[in-house]
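Q: Structure for this?
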Amino acid sequence: MVTYTDWLNLDAAEIALARSLDRGERVKLARWEAMRSACRPVQTD
Amino acid sequence: MADPVRVAVVGSGPAGLYAAEALVKQTGDTVRVDVFDRLPTPYGLVRYGVAPDHKSIKSIARYLQRVLENPAVRFLGCVELGRDVSRADLLDCYDAVIYSTGAMVDRQLGIPGEDLPGSVAATDFVNWYCGHPDAADHDFDLSVEEVAVIGVGNVAVDVVRILAKTVEELRETDIPEHVLDALSRSRVRRVHMVGRRGPAQAKFTTKEARELGELPNAGIHVRPEDMELDPASAEAAENDRHVRGNLKVLSGWTAEPPAGRARRVDVRFWRAPVEIVGTGAVEGLRLERTALDENGRVTGTGEYETLPVGMVLRSVGYQSVPLDGVPFDERSYVVPNDGGRVLGKDGAPVPASTSPDGSSAARPASSAPTSPTPPRPSATCWRTSTPPASGRPVPSRTCSNRAACPWSPTPTG
Protein backbone atom coordinates (compact mmCIF):
# COMPACT_ATOMS: atom_id res chain seq x y z
CA MET A 1 0.00 0.00 0.00
CA VAL A 2 1.19 3.50 -0.80
CA THR A 3 0.43 6.31 1.60
CA TYR A 4 0.24 10.02 0.92
CA THR A 5 3.72 10.40 2.39
CA ASP A 6 5.01 7.72 0.00
CA TRP A 7 3.43 9.62 -2.87
CA LEU A 8 5.15 12.81 -1.76
CA ASN A 9 8.46 10.93 -1.98
CA LEU A 10 7.62 9.89 -5.53
CA ASP A 11 6.58 13.47 -6.30
CA ALA A 12 9.93 14.75 -5.01
CA ALA A 13 11.82 12.14 -7.03
CA GLU A 14 10.15 13.32 -10.24
CA ILE A 15 11.04 16.91 -9.50
CA ALA A 16 14.63 15.91 -8.76
CA LEU A 17 14.77 13.91 -12.00
CA ALA A 18 13.68 16.95 -14.02
CA ARG A 19 16.41 18.99 -12.37
CA SER A 20 19.06 16.38 -13.11
CA LEU A 21 17.99 16.22 -16.76
CA ASP A 22 17.63 20.00 -17.04
CA ARG A 23 14.03 19.46 -18.15
CA GLY A 24 11.32 21.72 -16.73
CA GLU A 25 9.56 21.25 -13.40
CA ARG A 26 8.97 17.51 -13.46
CA VAL A 27 9.78 14.39 -15.41
CA LYS A 28 7.44 11.51 -14.70
CA LEU A 29 8.59 8.14 -13.58
CA ALA A 30 6.62 5.67 -15.64
CA ARG A 31 7.75 2.20 -14.70
CA TRP A 32 6.20 0.36 -11.79
CA GLU A 33 9.52 -0.57 -10.24
CA ALA A 34 10.90 2.95 -10.40
CA MET A 35 7.71 4.33 -8.93
CA ARG A 36 7.68 1.84 -6.07
CA SER A 37 11.32 2.52 -5.30
CA ALA A 38 10.74 6.26 -5.29
CA CYS A 39 7.85 5.86 -2.86
CA ARG A 40 10.15 4.40 -0.24
CA PRO A 41 13.66 5.61 -0.95
CA VAL A 42 16.55 4.02 0.88
CA GLN A 43 17.75 6.40 3.57
CA THR A 44 21.42 7.33 3.34
CA ASP A 45 23.19 9.29 6.06
CA MET B 1 -17.62 11.98 20.30
CA ALA B 2 -19.56 9.50 18.19
CA ASP B 3 -17.75 7.42 15.66
CA PRO B 4 -17.22 9.40 12.48
CA VAL B 5 -18.91 8.23 9.33
CA ARG B 6 -16.45 6.31 7.20
CA VAL B 7 -16.55 6.68 3.46
CA ALA B 8 -14.44 4.87 0.90
CA VAL B 9 -13.82 6.58 -2.41
CA VAL B 10 -12.57 4.24 -5.12
CA GLY B 11 -10.47 6.27 -7.53
CA SER B 12 -8.38 9.33 -6.74
CA GLY B 13 -9.00 11.30 -9.90
CA PRO B 14 -10.62 14.73 -9.85
CA ALA B 15 -14.15 13.35 -9.39
CA GLY B 16 -13.13 11.16 -6.45
CA LEU B 17 -11.18 13.90 -4.73
CA TYR B 18 -13.87 16.51 -5.29
CA ALA B 19 -16.32 14.02 -3.79
CA ALA B 20 -14.02 13.60 -0.78
CA GLU B 21 -13.77 17.35 -0.46
CA ALA B 22 -17.53 17.76 -0.64
CA LEU B 23 -18.00 15.17 2.09
CA VAL B 24 -15.53 16.87 4.40
CA LYS B 25 -16.99 20.29 3.72
CA GLN B 26 -20.54 19.08 4.36
CA THR B 27 -19.94 17.05 7.46
CA GLY B 28 -16.93 18.69 9.05
CA ASP B 29 -15.29 16.60 11.73
CA THR B 30 -17.82 13.81 11.55
CA VAL B 31 -16.49 12.03 8.49
CA ARG B 32 -13.34 10.15 7.56
CA VAL B 33 -12.65 9.49 3.91
CA ASP B 34 -10.26 6.89 2.55
CA VAL B 35 -9.42 7.44 -1.09
CA PHE B 36 -8.26 4.27 -2.83
CA ASP B 37 -6.36 4.04 -6.07
CA ARG B 38 -4.83 1.05 -7.82
CA LEU B 39 -1.88 3.26 -8.81
CA PRO B 40 0.74 4.67 -6.43
CA THR B 41 -0.15 8.14 -7.70
CA PRO B 42 -3.24 10.25 -7.10
CA TYR B 43 -5.03 12.67 -9.50
CA GLY B 44 -6.15 10.14 -12.16
CA LEU B 45 -6.99 11.89 -15.38
CA VAL B 46 -5.15 15.05 -14.35
CA ARG B 47 -1.93 13.04 -14.29
CA TYR B 48 -2.67 10.46 -16.99
CA GLY B 49 -5.11 12.18 -19.30
CA VAL B 50 -4.25 15.85 -19.51
CA ALA B 51 -1.67 16.40 -22.22
CA PRO B 52 1.83 17.06 -20.87
CA ASP B 53 2.04 20.41 -22.64
CA HIS B 54 -1.13 21.67 -20.93
CA LYS B 55 0.50 22.86 -17.77
CA SER B 56 -2.28 25.21 -16.72
CA ILE B 57 -4.83 22.37 -16.63
CA LYS B 58 -2.39 20.11 -14.84
CA SER B 59 -2.12 22.74 -12.12
CA ILE B 60 -5.50 21.44 -10.88
CA ALA B 61 -3.36 18.85 -9.11
CA ARG B 62 -2.27 21.58 -6.69
CA TYR B 63 -5.89 22.14 -5.71
CA LEU B 64 -6.53 18.43 -5.38
CA GLN B 65 -3.44 18.06 -3.22
CA ARG B 66 -5.16 20.23 -0.61
CA VAL B 67 -7.94 17.67 -0.39
CA LEU B 68 -5.45 14.90 0.32
CA GLU B 69 -3.79 17.02 2.99
CA ASN B 70 -7.02 17.36 4.93
CA PRO B 71 -6.62 15.31 8.14
CA ALA B 72 -9.98 13.68 7.50
CA VAL B 73 -8.82 12.29 4.15
CA ARG B 74 -6.32 9.51 3.52
CA PHE B 75 -4.77 8.35 0.27
CA LEU B 76 -4.34 4.59 -0.05
CA GLY B 77 -2.47 3.85 -3.26
CA CYS B 78 -1.64 0.53 -4.89
CA VAL B 79 -4.88 -0.95 -3.59
CA GLU B 80 -7.03 -2.40 -6.36
CA LEU B 81 -10.69 -3.26 -6.05
CA GLY B 82 -11.10 -6.92 -6.89
CA ARG B 83 -7.43 -7.74 -6.32
CA ASP B 84 -6.45 -6.31 -2.93
CA VAL B 85 -9.84 -5.50 -1.56
CA SER B 86 -13.33 -6.69 -2.42
CA ARG B 87 -16.55 -4.77 -2.52
CA ALA B 88 -17.70 -6.87 0.43
CA ASP B 89 -14.60 -5.77 2.39
CA LEU B 90 -15.41 -2.15 1.70
CA LEU B 91 -19.05 -2.53 2.64
CA ASP B 92 -17.99 -4.23 5.83
CA CYS B 93 -15.69 -1.43 6.89
CA TYR B 94 -17.27 1.72 5.50
CA ASP B 95 -20.62 3.39 5.81
CA ALA B 96 -20.65 4.37 2.15
CA VAL B 97 -18.64 3.67 -0.95
CA ILE B 98 -18.26 6.06 -3.84
CA TYR B 99 -17.03 4.71 -7.16
CA SER B 100 -15.11 7.19 -9.27
CA THR B 101 -13.00 5.11 -11.56
CA GLY B 102 -13.89 6.95 -14.74
CA ALA B 103 -14.13 5.79 -18.32
CA MET B 104 -11.05 3.75 -18.96
CA VAL B 105 -11.25 2.12 -22.38
CA ASP B 106 -11.81 3.31 -25.94
CA ARG B 107 -14.91 2.51 -27.84
CA GLN B 108 -14.39 0.32 -30.88
CA LEU B 109 -14.99 1.46 -34.45
CA GLY B 110 -16.35 -1.92 -35.52
CA ILE B 111 -14.68 -1.89 -38.93
CA PRO B 112 -12.45 -4.47 -40.64
CA GLY B 113 -8.75 -4.21 -39.87
CA GLU B 114 -9.25 -2.66 -36.45
CA ASP B 115 -7.05 -5.33 -34.86
CA LEU B 116 -4.11 -4.90 -37.21
CA PRO B 117 -0.78 -3.94 -35.65
CA GLY B 118 -0.57 -0.17 -35.93
CA SER B 119 -4.26 0.32 -35.18
CA VAL B 120 -4.12 1.81 -31.73
CA ALA B 121 -6.58 3.06 -29.14
CA ALA B 122 -5.89 6.71 -28.47
CA THR B 123 -6.05 6.06 -24.74
CA ASP B 124 -3.09 3.67 -25.04
CA PHE B 125 -1.08 6.35 -26.79
CA VAL B 126 -2.17 8.99 -24.28
CA ASN B 127 -1.31 6.70 -21.37
CA TRP B 128 2.10 6.09 -22.90
CA TYR B 129 3.09 9.72 -23.34
CA CYS B 130 1.51 10.63 -19.99
CA GLY B 131 3.67 8.05 -18.22
CA HIS B 132 1.01 5.60 -17.06
CA PRO B 133 2.89 2.59 -15.66
CA ASP B 134 0.61 0.13 -17.47
CA ALA B 135 1.68 1.69 -20.78
CA ALA B 136 5.36 2.22 -20.08
CA ASP B 137 6.47 -0.65 -22.30
CA HIS B 138 4.10 0.00 -25.16
CA ASP B 139 5.87 0.25 -28.47
CA PHE B 140 4.41 2.55 -31.11
CA ASP B 141 5.86 2.45 -34.59
CA LEU B 142 6.80 6.06 -35.17
CA SER B 143 8.94 5.15 -38.18
CA VAL B 144 5.89 5.71 -40.40
CA GLU B 145 5.51 9.01 -42.21
CA GLU B 146 1.72 9.36 -42.16
CA VAL B 147 -0.71 8.76 -39.32
CA ALA B 148 -4.50 9.04 -39.10
CA VAL B 149 -6.28 10.08 -35.93
CA ILE B 150 -9.97 9.19 -36.04
CA GLY B 151 -12.10 11.58 -34.05
CA VAL B 152 -12.45 15.32 -33.66
CA GLY B 153 -12.61 15.75 -29.90
CA ASN B 154 -10.09 17.22 -27.51
CA VAL B 155 -8.29 13.89 -27.00
CA ALA B 156 -7.82 13.57 -30.75
CA VAL B 157 -6.46 17.11 -30.87
CA ASP B 158 -4.06 16.31 -28.01
CA VAL B 159 -2.76 13.25 -29.85
CA VAL B 160 -2.35 15.18 -33.10
CA ARG B 161 -0.52 17.97 -31.31
CA ILE B 162 1.90 15.62 -29.55
CA LEU B 163 2.67 13.92 -32.88
CA ALA B 164 3.05 17.26 -34.64
CA LYS B 165 5.30 18.95 -32.10
CA THR B 166 9.04 18.66 -32.24
CA VAL B 167 10.87 17.12 -29.35
CA GLU B 168 12.33 20.54 -28.51
CA GLU B 169 8.79 21.79 -27.96
CA LEU B 170 8.08 18.91 -25.59
CA ARG B 171 11.32 18.90 -23.69
CA GLU B 172 10.11 21.18 -20.89
CA THR B 173 7.07 18.98 -20.20
CA ASP B 174 6.81 16.09 -17.75
CA ILE B 175 6.87 13.45 -20.53
CA PRO B 176 8.88 10.45 -19.32
CA GLU B 177 12.41 10.36 -20.64
CA HIS B 178 11.96 7.13 -22.62
CA VAL B 179 8.89 8.57 -24.35
CA LEU B 180 10.71 11.77 -25.23
CA ASP B 181 13.50 9.64 -26.63
CA ALA B 182 11.04 7.68 -28.80
CA LEU B 183 9.38 10.88 -30.00
CA SER B 184 12.81 12.32 -30.89
CA ARG B 185 13.20 9.46 -33.38
CA SER B 186 9.72 9.92 -34.86
CA ARG B 187 9.57 10.08 -38.65
CA VAL B 188 5.94 11.13 -38.69
CA ARG B 189 5.54 14.04 -41.09
CA ARG B 190 1.83 14.14 -41.81
CA VAL B 191 -1.12 13.62 -39.50
CA HIS B 192 -4.71 13.33 -40.76
CA MET B 193 -7.48 14.08 -38.28
CA VAL B 194 -10.72 12.51 -39.52
CA GLY B 195 -14.31 13.32 -38.56
CA ARG B 196 -17.49 11.56 -39.75
CA ARG B 197 -19.49 14.74 -39.56
CA GLY B 198 -18.85 18.35 -40.48
CA PRO B 199 -16.95 21.20 -38.89
CA ALA B 200 -20.01 22.44 -37.01
CA GLN B 201 -20.21 19.11 -35.16
CA ALA B 202 -16.56 18.98 -34.13
CA LYS B 203 -16.32 18.30 -30.40
CA PHE B 204 -13.00 19.94 -29.71
CA THR B 205 -12.99 23.23 -27.87
CA THR B 206 -12.10 26.39 -29.72
CA LYS B 207 -9.13 26.90 -27.42
CA GLU B 208 -7.69 23.48 -28.33
CA ALA B 209 -8.28 24.08 -32.03
CA ARG B 210 -6.62 27.49 -31.92
CA GLU B 211 -3.62 25.98 -30.20
CA LEU B 212 -3.28 23.39 -32.95
CA GLY B 213 -3.15 26.13 -35.54
CA GLU B 214 -0.40 27.95 -33.71
CA LEU B 215 2.22 25.22 -33.79
CA PRO B 216 5.39 26.84 -35.14
CA ASN B 217 6.70 23.72 -36.84
CA ALA B 218 3.53 22.27 -38.31
CA GLY B 219 1.29 23.57 -41.07
CA ILE B 220 -2.44 22.86 -40.84
CA HIS B 221 -5.02 22.58 -43.57
CA VAL B 222 -8.71 21.91 -44.01
CA ARG B 223 -10.27 21.60 -47.46
CA PRO B 224 -12.52 24.55 -48.30
CA GLU B 225 -15.24 22.19 -49.57
CA ASP B 226 -15.33 20.48 -46.17
CA MET B 227 -16.28 23.80 -44.61
CA GLU B 228 -19.55 24.13 -46.51
CA LEU B 229 -22.44 24.18 -44.05
CA ASP B 230 -25.80 22.50 -44.35
CA PRO B 231 -28.78 24.59 -43.09
CA ALA B 232 -28.78 22.98 -39.63
CA SER B 233 -25.07 23.61 -39.20
CA ALA B 234 -25.47 27.19 -40.39
CA GLU B 235 -28.17 27.69 -37.77
CA ALA B 236 -25.94 26.15 -35.10
CA ALA B 237 -23.17 28.51 -36.13
CA GLU B 238 -25.50 31.43 -35.55
CA ASN B 239 -26.79 30.33 -32.19
CA ASP B 240 -23.92 28.44 -30.59
CA ARG B 241 -20.82 30.30 -29.51
CA HIS B 242 -18.74 27.12 -29.41
CA VAL B 243 -19.65 26.21 -32.99
CA ARG B 244 -19.11 29.76 -34.16
CA GLY B 245 -15.68 29.88 -32.50
CA ASN B 246 -14.61 26.57 -34.02
CA LEU B 247 -15.75 27.57 -37.49
CA LYS B 248 -13.85 30.82 -37.26
CA VAL B 249 -10.63 28.97 -36.37
CA LEU B 250 -11.17 26.27 -39.00
CA SER B 251 -11.90 28.84 -41.70
CA GLY B 252 -8.43 30.21 -41.15
CA TRP B 253 -6.94 26.86 -42.17
CA THR B 254 -8.38 26.60 -45.68
CA ALA B 255 -5.35 28.15 -47.36
CA GLU B 256 -2.39 25.90 -48.05
CA PRO B 257 0.03 26.16 -45.11
CA PRO B 258 3.37 27.85 -45.67
CA ALA B 259 6.07 25.62 -47.13
CA GLY B 260 9.02 24.57 -45.06
CA ARG B 261 7.19 23.33 -41.96
CA ALA B 262 8.56 20.07 -40.60
CA ARG B 263 5.12 18.55 -40.20
CA ARG B 264 1.64 18.91 -41.60
CA VAL B 265 -1.82 18.33 -40.15
CA ASP B 266 -4.82 17.72 -42.44
CA VAL B 267 -8.23 17.97 -40.86
CA ARG B 268 -10.72 15.91 -42.86
CA PHE B 269 -14.43 16.34 -42.24
CA TRP B 270 -17.27 14.31 -43.78
CA ARG B 271 -15.19 11.14 -43.92
CA ALA B 272 -16.22 7.88 -42.24
CA PRO B 273 -13.59 5.20 -41.71
CA VAL B 274 -14.81 1.98 -43.33
CA GLU B 275 -11.70 -0.21 -43.24
CA ILE B 276 -8.19 -0.23 -41.90
CA VAL B 277 -6.27 -1.90 -44.70
CA GLY B 278 -2.99 -3.78 -44.61
CA THR B 279 -1.34 -7.17 -44.69
CA GLY B 280 0.17 -7.87 -41.31
CA ALA B 281 0.13 -4.20 -40.31
CA VAL B 282 -1.67 -0.97 -41.07
CA GLU B 283 -0.96 0.25 -44.60
CA GLY B 284 -3.88 2.54 -45.13
CA LEU B 285 -7.22 3.87 -43.93
CA ARG B 286 -10.18 3.60 -46.28
CA LEU B 287 -12.67 6.41 -45.91
CA GLU B 288 -16.11 6.98 -47.33
CA ARG B 289 -17.31 10.45 -48.02
CA THR B 290 -20.41 11.23 -45.94
CA ALA B 291 -23.30 13.65 -46.09
CA LEU B 292 -26.42 14.32 -44.09
CA ASP B 293 -29.64 12.69 -45.21
CA GLU B 294 -33.04 14.38 -45.06
CA ASN B 295 -33.34 13.43 -41.38
CA GLY B 296 -30.02 14.99 -40.48
CA ARG B 297 -28.27 11.65 -40.10
CA VAL B 298 -24.83 10.90 -41.48
CA THR B 299 -24.93 8.62 -44.47
CA GLY B 300 -22.31 7.30 -46.88
CA THR B 301 -22.17 8.71 -50.41
CA GLY B 302 -20.40 5.76 -52.06
CA GLU B 303 -17.33 7.87 -52.76
CA TYR B 304 -14.16 6.32 -51.31
CA GLU B 305 -10.51 7.20 -50.84
CA THR B 306 -7.62 5.55 -49.02
CA LEU B 307 -5.11 7.47 -46.93
CA PRO B 308 -1.61 5.92 -47.08
CA VAL B 309 -1.08 5.84 -43.33
CA GLY B 310 1.05 3.45 -41.30
CA MET B 311 -0.70 4.02 -37.98
CA VAL B 312 -4.32 4.68 -37.02
CA LEU B 313 -5.20 6.12 -33.63
CA ARG B 314 -8.84 5.66 -32.67
CA SER B 315 -10.39 8.38 -30.56
CA VAL B 316 -14.14 8.01 -30.88
CA GLY B 317 -15.23 8.01 -27.27
CA TYR B 318 -14.63 6.13 -24.08
CA GLN B 319 -16.50 3.74 -21.88
CA SER B 320 -16.34 2.51 -18.34
CA VAL B 321 -15.44 -1.04 -17.48
CA PRO B 322 -17.24 -3.14 -14.88
CA LEU B 323 -15.87 -3.04 -11.34
CA ASP B 324 -15.56 -6.24 -9.39
CA GLY B 325 -18.86 -6.99 -7.70
CA VAL B 326 -20.49 -3.69 -8.64
CA PRO B 327 -23.66 -3.62 -10.77
CA PHE B 328 -22.97 -2.60 -14.35
CA ASP B 329 -25.16 -1.89 -17.34
CA GLU B 330 -23.42 -3.55 -20.31
CA ARG B 331 -25.53 -1.65 -22.82
CA SER B 332 -24.84 1.87 -21.65
CA TYR B 333 -21.54 1.12 -19.89
CA VAL B 334 -22.52 2.81 -16.64
CA VAL B 335 -23.20 1.76 -13.09
CA PRO B 336 -27.01 1.74 -13.05
CA ASN B 337 -28.16 4.44 -10.70
CA ASP B 338 -30.98 6.69 -9.68
CA GLY B 339 -29.62 10.15 -9.09
CA GLY B 340 -26.31 8.48 -8.32
CA ARG B 341 -27.58 5.81 -5.97
CA VAL B 342 -26.53 2.40 -7.23
CA LEU B 343 -29.36 0.21 -8.44
CA GLY B 344 -29.46 -3.56 -8.55
CA LYS B 345 -30.75 -5.75 -11.37
CA ASP B 346 -34.30 -5.32 -10.08
CA GLY B 347 -34.00 -1.55 -10.39
CA ALA B 348 -34.14 -1.05 -6.63
CA PRO B 349 -31.37 0.70 -4.70
CA VAL B 350 -28.64 -1.68 -3.66
CA PRO B 351 -28.80 -1.94 0.12
CA ALA B 352 -25.89 -0.96 2.33
CA SER B 353 -24.56 0.53 -0.68
CA THR B 354 -22.44 2.25 -3.02
CA SER B 355 -22.48 5.36 -5.01
CA PRO B 356 -20.99 6.04 -8.35
CA ASP B 357 -19.87 9.61 -8.62
CA GLY B 358 -20.08 11.79 -11.68
CA SER B 359 -17.72 9.70 -13.78
CA SER B 360 -18.88 6.13 -13.88
CA ALA B 361 -22.50 6.93 -13.12
CA ALA B 362 -22.78 9.41 -15.89
CA ARG B 363 -22.08 8.62 -19.48
CA PRO B 364 -18.34 8.55 -19.92
CA ALA B 365 -16.76 11.84 -20.75
CA SER B 366 -13.56 12.08 -22.68
CA SER B 367 -12.08 15.20 -21.23
CA ALA B 368 -10.66 16.21 -17.94
CA PRO B 369 -12.06 19.20 -16.11
CA THR B 370 -10.46 22.33 -17.42
CA SER B 371 -11.04 24.47 -14.38
CA PRO B 372 -11.08 23.91 -10.66
CA THR B 373 -14.86 23.88 -10.74
CA PRO B 374 -15.67 20.61 -9.02
CA PRO B 375 -17.71 18.01 -10.85
CA ARG B 376 -20.58 17.56 -8.44
CA PRO B 377 -20.91 13.98 -7.28
CA SER B 378 -24.22 12.76 -8.52
CA ALA B 379 -25.08 11.16 -5.22
CA THR B 380 -23.83 9.60 -2.08
CA CYS B 381 -25.39 6.43 -0.83
CA TRP B 382 -25.38 5.33 2.72
CA ARG B 383 -25.95 2.29 4.79
CA THR B 384 -29.03 3.91 6.19
CA SER B 385 -32.09 4.18 4.02
CA THR B 386 -31.95 7.96 4.00
CA PRO B 387 -28.82 9.99 3.33
CA PRO B 388 -27.88 12.28 6.21
CA ALA B 389 -28.74 15.91 6.09
CA SER B 390 -25.80 18.17 5.50
CA GLY B 391 -23.65 18.50 8.59
CA ARG B 392 -25.38 15.70 10.45
CA PRO B 393 -23.69 12.40 10.99
CA VAL B 394 -25.31 9.05 10.51
CA PRO B 395 -24.66 6.27 12.96
CA SER B 396 -21.66 4.23 11.94
CA ARG B 397 -22.15 0.53 11.61
CA THR B 398 -19.81 -1.54 13.64
CA CYS B 399 -17.39 -3.30 11.38
CA SER B 400 -17.11 -6.95 12.16
CA ASN B 401 -13.86 -7.25 10.37
CA ARG B 402 -12.20 -3.90 10.94
CA ALA B 403 -9.15 -5.23 12.72
CA ALA B 404 -8.43 -7.52 9.79
CA CYS B 405 -8.73 -4.84 7.13
CA PRO B 406 -5.41 -4.83 5.29
CA TRP B 407 -5.54 -1.09 4.73
CA SER B 408 -6.00 -0.33 8.41
CA PRO B 409 -9.08 1.88 8.48
CA THR B 410 -8.79 5.23 10.13
CA PRO B 411 -8.91 4.95 13.90
CA THR B 412 -12.08 6.36 15.32
CA GLY B 413 -10.09 8.71 17.57
